[in-house]
Amino acid sequence: MFVIRSIAQAQSGRRDEAVALMKEFAAESRKELGQPEARILTGSIGPTDSTVVMESVVKSLAEFEQGLEATNKWAGMQRYGKKFAELFISGTHHFEIYRIHP
User: Fold this and answer.
1) Domain parsing of the chain, residue ranges
2) Which CATH class, in words, describes the domain spanning 2-99?
């Protein structure tokens, strides 16, 4: 199993809006695409307080890749993509992937 973290920096002063959008995105993509349950985390002190993380667990990297492909083809991504562009700093998004050792 793997922990997948989708990480980006919110625009200055817009972290709370970005968190709300990520919660909405996670819920809708879970409902419509069957994406895994996700939790949203933020930085708490200093310059990283604008960091927004969406974290989920998948059984395999193949499952992650299939979910990413489905999300990118999803019609809802056009709507969310525009909102993401408004709330997050361009070029800051990246993934971190960690293996879970039971």
Assistant:
1) 2-99
2) alpha beta
